[in-house]
Write a sequence for this structure.
């Protein structure tokens, strides 16, 4: 049976146009069953523009939309029939296996956390993103769900990113790096220093602190950071790449020879753009939630939506969440064993198993 | 009388070679008096390679060097005769008006703070950097001196950056932006939110939160952030630019036509590199210290050192520090007036004037 992917038809700067186009592409290319959620008339109008040659697309009506600039918490409280809220309801009811949304990230995080809950053992969800580097794909987590994490949250992000890298990218011993202001142990804030300690003691291939300059070199397979830093880094990168593109274009119009040269190297630049394009990676995952929620960029093209849907199907198929739950329950077993044998376990595991699952959200 | 600039001859990845070469260039180009501090024999050997045609260069011996990877605090404690410690001693003794160092940043910050002290009214020093943007030079502060700032520290950084932009870059109403994960008020950590409140109430051209994507657009003349985020952003940018350069070069070797095209556009790329080059800006300033301390990149070229020395002379000439002291003492006057007239002053100014100047340093 093909995976059933619920797509927030109204989420994003170019919704529903790009979302519907991307959904059609995904249905045709990957033979998936797609449920588009949102205003029926608007979605139908878009859908009629395309021919669905494979897979299956249906529409599920939702009367409201959460705007990109709306306050997540109040939007979730007030708009019970928004496309994102209805999408989550459908997932919960078992009508689909995953959600893809390019809408208001804060609202998606808040609604998912409150209504789907967290995976057993996980304290806070985080957003994991794939980044193209010199030596393949690396992962960074968190890039915006949790701007005030504790060391335990960051530690759990490392564990989840490790499982993701093994499961989705088939990496054998993913190198885990902690984003910091210097490579030496003892650098950074108290929270980062305590996270370092937890990671060093864990059963992970922890390579220590990594500096910003190694964000895109592939030195670490998984880069762990708080959501504030991760969010700023992503957006700085986006802005920089846009600016450089503009600057190069501006320079290249300054002389006739430059224009000829630019024409000659155009295919190389297009290829480069493709190689460094986030859209290929197919969205970020809100990890730690009891459900598969893929968050695509607000300005997603149809191609980005298509790839996000592909990623959603892949995460469902390879069952990343089960691996995470299994990992954390094994940790519990270890702890119980340790208790029975009167052995000491690490400070972290004890603390983790005692505190209740928190679903409160910041900002 | 020409400005006398003290240059840490042993600081940096390519010291003393690049430092001495840059010092000679600065002496020749700007008719300055330069005191090179460090191991006499090594400095003499380098100095003999060049001809000093203007200005004046002397050598002041210091037997020790703080390594780039050394722990700042222990290095400052143990190496009393290091080139950076001796440089600071010379500044304090009035032998020069400013220091330029490309050495261990942490050591420079720690030694400056402890031995030179802070400007009256300033709670913590911060590193201010000039960044080339689409519409000219912007400033960012702090990029690494203070990774755990309070809202008051961040507020003071905004005031100092504002004064710097007015004094050095002749900007009339510098736009002050607070780096955050979203533009809306109410975004960010508690510290960022409280800083927002302080800035909104202040006599500054505060334009609100700015996101990472506007770091290089020139939307804000002064970008305020904590030292952790600022440091990571700078290093990510460096890494990204290096990677892109490498990727472009790699792509351009893939076909004969690309190679021809690359030759044709070479001058455009060189110009672009120059326009986006941090080295042109001439180093960062450790602002808030009672003294002028310019911190240059560890991997500085001779050209970067030359420009950092030029910047040092400029900051001395335009007397940025006096403007800062004047500003904060005016605030005191205002406060006294307010008290006498039983008027209320802002929460921040009251708090600022009551707490003692703190010279403790983190990490």
């Amino acid at each position: 049976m093909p995976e059933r992917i619920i797509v927030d038809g109204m989420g994003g700067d170019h919704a529903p146009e790009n979302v519907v186009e991307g959904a059609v592409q995904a249905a045709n290319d990957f033979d998936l069953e797609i449920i588009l959620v949102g205003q029926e008339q608007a979605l139908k109008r878009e859908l009629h523009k395309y021919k669905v040659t494979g897979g299956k697309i249906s529409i599920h009506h939702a009367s409201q939309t959460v705007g990109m600039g709306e306050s997540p918490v109040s939007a979730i409280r007030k708009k019970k029939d928004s496309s994102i809220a209805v999408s989550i309801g459908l997932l919960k009811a078992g009508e689909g296996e995953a959600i893809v949304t390019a809408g208001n990230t804060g609202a998606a995080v808040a609604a998912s956390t409150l209504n789907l809950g967290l995976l057993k053992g996980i304290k806070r969800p985080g957003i994991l993103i794939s980044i193209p580097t010199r030596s393949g794909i690396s992962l960074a987590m968190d890039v915006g769900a949790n701007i005030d994490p504790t060391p335990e949250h960051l530690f759990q992000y490392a564990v989840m990113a490790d499982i993701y890298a093994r499961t989705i990218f088939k990496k054998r011993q993913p190198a885990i790096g902690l984003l910091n202001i210097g490579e030496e142990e003892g650098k950074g804030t108290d929270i980062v220093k305590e996270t370092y300690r937890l990671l060093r003691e864990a059963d992970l291939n922890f390579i220590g602190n990594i500096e910003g300059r190694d964000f895109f070199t592939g030195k670490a397979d998984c880069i762990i950071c708080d959501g504030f830093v991760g969010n700023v880094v992503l957006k700085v990168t986006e802005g920089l790449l846009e600016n450089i593109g503009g600057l190069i274009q501006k320079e290249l119009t300054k002389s006739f020879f430059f224009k000829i040269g630019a024409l000659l190297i155009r295919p190389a630049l297009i290829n480069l753009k493709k190689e460094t394009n986030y859209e290929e990676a197919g969205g970020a995952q809100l990890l730690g939630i009891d459900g598969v929620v893929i968050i695509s960029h607000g300005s997603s093209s149809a191609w980005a939506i298509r790839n996000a849907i592909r990623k959603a199907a892949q995460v469902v198929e390879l069952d990343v969440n089960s691996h995470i739950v299994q990992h954390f329950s094994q940790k519990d077993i270890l702890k119980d064993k340790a208790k029975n044998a009167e052995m000491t376990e690490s400070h972290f595991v004890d603390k983790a198993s005692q505190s209740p699952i928190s679903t409160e959200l910041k900002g």
